[in-house]
Automatic annotation (TrEMBL):
The lineage of its organism: Bacteria, Bacillati, Bacillota, Bacilli, Lactobacillales. Coiled coil: none annotated. GO terms for molecular function: nucleic acid binding; RNA-DNA hybrid ribonuclease activity. Gene3D superfamilies: Ribonuclease H-like superfamily/Ribonuclease H. It holds the Pfam family RVT_3. This is Ribonuclease HI. InterPro entries: RNaseH-like_sf (IPR012337), RNaseH_domain (IPR002156), RNaseH_sf (IPR036397). It comes from the Bacteria. Residues 9-130 form the RNase H type-1 domain.
Length: 138
C-alpha cells in the first residue's frame, strides 16, 4: 500500500507590521500533526508559498527515502499557489514556484487541490495563532 498523507497549509500576514506566520496540518493514518511556523515573507502571497515549501521540506526530511513511494494530497486555500503549481509558472512569483516544486520533487506523487478557506480551518487557525504569538513577542 502506498503511504498517503494529506497536507494542509495556510499563511497569515499582518499588513501593517509585515509579520507573517504559517499553519501546517498533516494527516496520516488518522493521526494529525500540527505546526505553527514563523515566516520571513512580508506579503500574504509570498507567505503562502513559503509555508507550503517549509511543509514539504519538513515532510521530506521526516520521511527520508520513503518519499519515493509516498503520495501527498496537498490542500491550499491560496489560488495563486494552486494555479501556479498547475501551470508550473507565476509571473511575479517564479522563484517561489520553483522552490515549492523542488520541495515536492522527492515525493512519488503530489496532487494539489484548491479548497475554500472554510475547508482549511485547521491550517488557518494554526497560522493565526502563530501570527498572534509573533505579535505578542514584538
Amino acid at each position: 500500500m502506498i503511504p498517503l498523507y494529506s497536507l494542509y497549509t495556510d499563511a497569515a500576514t499582518q499588513p501593517q507590521s509585515g509579520l507573517s506566520a504559517g499553519g501546517i496540518l498533516l494527516i496520516h493514518n488518522h493521526q494529525q500533526t500540527q505546526h505553527g511556523v514563523t515566516l520571513t515573507a512580508t506579503t500574504n502571497h509570498l507567505a503562502e508559498f513559503e509555508v507550503a515549501t517549509i511543509a514539504f521540506t519538513q515532510l521530506a526530511h521526516d520521511l527520508g527515502a520513503a518519499c519515493a513511494t509516498t503520495t501527498v494530497l496537498f490542500y491550499t486555500d491560496s489560488q495563486i499557489v494552486s494555479q501556479s503549481l498547475d501551470k508550473r509558472y507565476a509571473k511575479h512569483y517564479q522563484a517561489q514556484v520553483d522552490a515549492l516544486l523542488a520541495a515536492q520533487r522527492p515525493f512519488q506523487l503530489v496532487l494539489t487541490q484548491w479548497v475554500p478557506e472554510k475547508q482549511n480551518m485547521g491550517a488557518h487557525t494554526l497560522a493565526n495563532q502563530a501570527l498572534h504569538a509573533r505579535e505578542d513577542v514584538k
